[in-house]
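Support reply, case 0932

Customer input (verbatim):
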Amino acid sequence: MSTSLHRPLDRISSIKLKLSILIVAAVAMTALASQIGFWLGWPVWVRPIVSGAAALLMVQFLARGLTKPLRTMAEAATAMAGGDYSRRVSAGGSDEVAKLARSFNAMAAEMAETDRLRKEFVANASHELRTPVAALRGTLENLVDGVGQPDARTLAQMLARAEHLSRLVGQLLDLSRLDSESDLNAIHQVDLGDLLNDVADEIALVSPATKVIVRAPFDLRIEGEPARLRQVFINIIGNAARFSHAGEPVLVTVTQNNGSAGVAVRDTGPGIPADQRAKVFERFWQAGETARTGSGGAGLGLAISKQIVDQHGGSIEVRENKPRGACFVVNLPRVQRVTIPPSKPTPAEVDQQ
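Our regenerated output:
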């Protein structure tokens, strides 16, 4: 049987018009049945009963499927409250109820994906926390049992594991704050060149073998939260310094275009395969080489960076850096004031001249 017979009013795109048709059809059927009863000589008390029954049957026929999506949505919402996000609503036509059903299905799919990511996040966070905790516990048990000795090497290993735990907990707290805060706090004008040079100086203390060269226009200012922006570039430039080949510099280039600032960070490391670049900003994700060697962190730094850049109304992406390496590009809007003259060389560039 065709859909038009199952749901006669599906082709009508307005729920108000459908209800109007139901009312008119009910009145017309009542009048027709009453008139037929009059022609056939039915008793006066029979005619209203037959007319009402005929009108009810007509409304039931025309209203097929009109409220079923609403009942299905109510049942699905109850199931979703209990954690079942697999329910979907089937609704034909193009009226408001059908649009609501499609929006409900999209919302259910999004909630299902969010629930999946939440469970995956909890599982990954538990795994990342469990590893250093287990190592610390094993070492402490050996010390307590007298199997090991509290020498400098053992204590240094324990300190490294404790610091790893502290960094991981800090990153998890950062993610939690970013998830709960939709707006930025403490917005200021930030000189992008000064910020990047400060980050370069800080990274030079941690990775003295890798030079960071910053090329930025003089007095290029944007609006943002300085601490958060610093965190973004500490993550990105720090990663570039860690993966670049020894003795080869990390190049940070700032450009300006149509009221926005672009920061490109180029390294000379192993690079990121094209099929993995879309995943680098996912939480706990690590590139194959990093995951195998354990040379990276927990895979949260880039996820945090992306959320911060998104909150600033910008964008971040990764590209290939020829002939080798990776290039991370951060675009930040709301450039306030630009004076084009010369770029400020970093101490590293001065040394090379």
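We compared this against your earlier run and they match. Two observations from our side: Strands lie at 188-191, 212-215, 221-224, 250-257, 260-266, 315-320, 326-332, 335-337. The two ends are 84 Å apart (CA to CA). Please reopen the case if you see a mismatch on your end.
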